[in-house]
Specification:
The protein has 12 helices and 12 strands. With about 325 residues, the chain is an alpha/beta fold. The protein is globular and about 70 Å long.
């Protein structure tokens, strides 16, 4: 079998990314480390086919990943998966954040469209429309991540948010909950993710013969503090919910904290389900039941789609749907008798 970057990294006792940087000729590497990697490359008879092909085709081996907020756990974990997989195939990833601001997103893409140092872009957009993105088609390979915010001829990688949200609601119903509320989303035109998660929430209720309008508390963003304020409002409703579906684990974390502060028991009084299955959710008290998107699958599919686009720039755009699963933990509790 062909020797991989991981094989060389293990032999040299360094990270895969360090090996990739040596192979790609990056200068800022300690001489001793470079010598150790070079010795491992020679001993294992590594043949950098991808790099050689990139050089022949005038590529740099660098791609850009643009995310709305790097300090949000989901995006941080996704970035880790992208870097990990890209490194294994000899690609270096540069990361920037847009803050979800349409003007910032447009500025970043405009700059990258003319940049000679980057081969392509993985882009999670919150604010741009199809007309904004159309100008970049054909200038720099671009793959969209997350919820598609615009119908345009670009490759897209995401999950079925409607189906995933229906699964979360079905789980709460199986637990005997009948007054299920949804938490999250501004309802604005830019908030496509919340729109689809709300649709899945409503379809889940409807399938069980419950009021599809349900109970819904919007939040201005996905921050924990916003969730705490929203829960405080929900607890003033004439009839409290007995189940709560949060549109992200960040929101769920804020909700769990506020429920404890208000003396509400989870899951006895209100069962809670989140979305994203960030690592911290396994360690909350109680541990959080959550929808787990296949982050590693999203990363691999997105990088592969970008490499395919580099090899076949005229190929039709493709829609890639990645899987998800429900991780059941303490916050949704046992079935009610």
């Amino acid at each position: 079998m062909a020797v991989t970057l991981r094989d060389v990294a293990e032999k040299a006792g360094v990270s895969v990314r360090t090996v990739s940087n040596v192979v790609n000729g990056f200068q800022h590497i300690a001489p001793a480390t470079r010598a150790r990697v070079q010795a491992a490359l020679e001993e294992l008879n590594y043949r950098p086919n991808l790099v050689a092909r990139s050089l022949r085709q005038g590529r740099t081996g660098i791609i850009m990943l643009i995310l709305p907020e790097i300090n949000v756990s989901y995006f941080g974990e996704l970035a880790h998966e992208v870097v990990d997989y890209a490194s294994s195939v000899g690609i270096t990833v540069q990361i920037d954040e847009s803050g979800g601001d349409p003007q910032r997103e447009k500025e970043l893409l405009t700059q990258l469209a003319q940049a000679s140092w980057v081969d392509g872009v993985l882009f999670s957009s919150l604010g741009l429309r199809g007309v904004d993105l159309a100008g970049l088609v054909g200038t720099r390979p671009l793959v969209l991540l997350g919820e598609r915010t615009a119908r345009t001829a670009l490759d897209h990688v995401g999950i079925d948010n409607v189906a995933a949200s229906r699964l979360a609601v079905a789980h709460l119903i199986e637990r005997g909950r009948t007054r299920i509320a949804a938490l999250g989303g501004s309802g604005g035109a830019r908030d496509a993710t919340s729109k689809y998660r709300l649709r899945g929430f409503q379809k889940g209720l409807e399938a069980a013969g419950l009021d599809p309008a349900g109970l819904y508390q919007r939040t201005p963003d996905y921050r924990r503090g916003s969730a705490a304020l929203a829960v405080r409002e929900m607890l003033r409703w004439p009839q409290r919910p007995d189940g709560l579906f949060c549109f992200s684990d960040e929101l769920a974390a804020g909700a769990l904290r506020e429920l404890v502060v208000q003396g509400v028991r989870v899951p006895e009084d209100i069962a809670v389900v989140g979305f994203d299955d960030i690592e911290a959710s396994s360690f909350s008290t109680p541990s959080l039941t959550s929808i787990r998107p296949d982050k590693a699958g999203i990363a691999k599919t997105a990088v592969d789609a970008l490499l395919h686009r580099l090899d076949a720039p005229e190929a039709p755009a493709r829609e890639h749907s990645v899987g998800f699963e429900l991780m059941v933990r303490e916050s949704s509790g046992p079935e009610l008798s």
